[in-house]
Amino acid sequence: MKRTFLAAALVFSCATAAADAMEDLTSAALEKRVALNMMRKEVEVERAKWPKADVPGLDFTKTGNAVIVHHESGQLSNPLDTLTGAVPFKLFHMKDDPYRVTPRARGIGLDKGEDKAKYRSDEYKPALQQMQRAKYALFVVGKVQEPKVDLGGKSFTPGKLEGSAVLYEIESKKLLGGFPLEARNSDKVTSRTGGYTGQELDALMHDFENNARAALWKAMKARFPSAKQPTIAYLNSKE
């Protein structure tokens, strides 16, 4: 009986410690996320003011020291576009987007029926740790036009991203550089017409998002050649 009690007490103690550790992690990540949300409102988009030097040690992988912030990911640029079947643009899926994951892990901005426990699972924990650890933030700012089909389903408007990516050191708010960023749907996709279904619209968005990420990595490599980039591949545009 005594051994059983001790074992149960140990299990309870471990569970409590794990819960406390997650509270500490999500709290620290949220504090960093709030700071980034304030910084994004003052991003320098005037290209003549961007420093030109490389930034040694810049690492955007999940175990690295930098995050990418695209505040509008997961939101339609025009909420009324839901009437035309448009879907929101997402630069990264949720598990690879510390900026979007962090508030959800604290119960903020959850969809109906969701529980914050989902975003505290092992699938999303690396994103929370990346946010907590981040020393640098690359802010993607600009205009996004989602791919849209007309109400008759006979034609569509291709997706388009026109903006900039601007790098800051988070603690000092020091501007470290930037680069222009542009992306569109592939020519082979934009040349198609007629008969679009919801699934095909998702395919259009998947193509657009893939092109946006490819443009981001290419431009980042040109501007910050020593930066480490993550390896990311998605099968669709979900999340």
Question: Quick summary of this structure?
Answer:
With 239 residues, this protein is α+β, with helices and mostly antiparallel strands. The protein has one domain (18-223). It is 36% helix and 16% strand.
Total beta strand runs: 6
Low-pLDDT regions: none
Let me know the average pLDDT: 88
Q: What string gives the helices and strands in order?
A: HEHHEEEEEHH
Q: What is the C-alpha radius of gyration, as a whole number of Å? A: 21 Å
- The order of strands across the largest sheet is 1-2-5-6
Number of domains: 1
- Note the overall shape: globular
User: Helix proportion of residues, in percent?
Assistant: 25-40%
End-to-end Cα distance: 48 Å
How would a textbook summarize the main sheet?
Answer: 4 strands, mixed
Number of helices: 5
* Structural class designation: alpha+beta
* Binned strand content: 15-25%
Describe this structure in words.
With 239 residues, the chain is of the alpha+beta class. The protein has one domain. The chain is built from five helices and six strands, in the order H-E-H-H-E-E-E-E-E-H-H. Strands 1-2-5-6 form a four-stranded mixed β-sheet. The chain has a two-stranded antiparallel sheet with strand order 3-4. Helix 1 (2-39) packs across helix 3 (125-133) and helix 2 crosses helix 3 (125-133). It is globular and about 75 Å long. The mean pLDDT is 88.
Q: Which properties best describe this structure?
A:
single chain; 239 residues; alpha+beta; four-stranded mixed β-sheet; two-stranded antiparallel ribbon; 16% strand
